[in-house]
């Protein structure tokens, strides 16, 4: 089975993890991506935000949530009273998956499958073990399935505080929609307000 496990160092904190992730060959997604996009933020962050996988901009820049979805997320966090600079931000899958009709044509995001999410899980587990956040904000269905299993339904649990064992540790989680879903929504303003009110639940759980 695909797995990142043999590539994950057992010690050395975030710098060692970030360095080792650049050489991960745990699943085929590293082949077509430009580079790994590891999590960003401080070891002492109180909140960890988990997205799906890097997008086009993230793949080019090597940093999570720097494209349009990231801009929207930062604004929503600030509106909810969470300082984006104080959060640790990462993804369930660390390499960009896409389809491309021809070279030099636009790269279109493709959702990672269960095998790829499972393969990449050891990186997320290692990030959780090092950062030990007080709260995990789960951004959308892929992150939810990666952390909470395939029966996860974002519409059923968004904006609530869940207590679950994740990779052997008791965690508190607040699921919400993915910021890309807000960008795609027919009623963007309502979708944005929904995201902010879920993040306000997270802000209250942190205070
Ligand atoms: N969407 C994600 O899920 N993660 C990113 O880093 C960017 C867009
Ligand atoms: Fe490794 Fe994850 Fe990249 Fe697959 S997606 S190669 S498991 S870092």
TrEMBL record:
Residues 38-200 form the Uracil-DNA glycosylase-like domain. It comes from the Bacteria. Keywords: 4Fe-4S, DNA damage, DNA repair, Hydrolase, Iron, Iron-sulfur, Metal-binding. InterPro entries: UDG_Type-4/5, Ura-DNA_glyco_family4, Uracil-DNA_glycosylase-like, Uracil-DNA_glycosylase-like_sf. The keyword Metal-binding applies. PANTHER family: TYPE-4 URACIL-DNA GLYCOSYLASE (PTHR33693:SF9), TYPE-5 URACIL-DNA GLYCOSYLASE (PTHR33693). Belongs to the uracil-DNA glycosylase (UDG) superfamily. Type 4 (UDGa) family. This is Type-4 uracil-DNA glycosylase. It comes from Streptomyces levis. The lineage of its organism: Bacteria, Bacillati, Actinomycetota, Actinomycetes, Kitasatosporales.
């Amino acid at each position: 089975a695909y797995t990142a496990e043999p590539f994950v160092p057992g010690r050395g904190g975030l710098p060692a993890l970030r360095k080792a992730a650049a050489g991960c060959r745990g699943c085929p997604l590293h082949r077509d991506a430009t580079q790994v996009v590891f999590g960003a933020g401080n070891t002492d962050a109180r909140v960890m935000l988990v997205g799906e996988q890097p997008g086009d901009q993230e793949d080019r820049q090597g940093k999570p949530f720097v494209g349009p979805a990231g801009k929207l997320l930062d604004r929503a966090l600030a509106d909810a009273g969470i300082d984006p600079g104080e959060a640790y931000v990462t993804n369930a899958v660390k390499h960009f998956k896409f389809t491309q009709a021809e070279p030099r044509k636009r790269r279109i995001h493709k959702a990672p499958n269960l095998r790829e999410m499972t393969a990449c899980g050891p990186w997320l587990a290692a990030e959780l073990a090092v950062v030990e956040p007080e709260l995990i904000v789960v951004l959308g269905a892929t992150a939810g399935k990666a952390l909470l299993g395939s029966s996860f339904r974002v519409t059923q649990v968004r904006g609530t505080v869940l207590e679950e064992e994740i990779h052997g540790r008791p965690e508190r989680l607040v699921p919400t929609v993915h910021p890309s879903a807000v960008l795609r929504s027919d009623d963007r303003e309502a979708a944005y307000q929904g995201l902010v009110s879920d993040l306000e639940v997270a802000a209250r759980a942190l205070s």
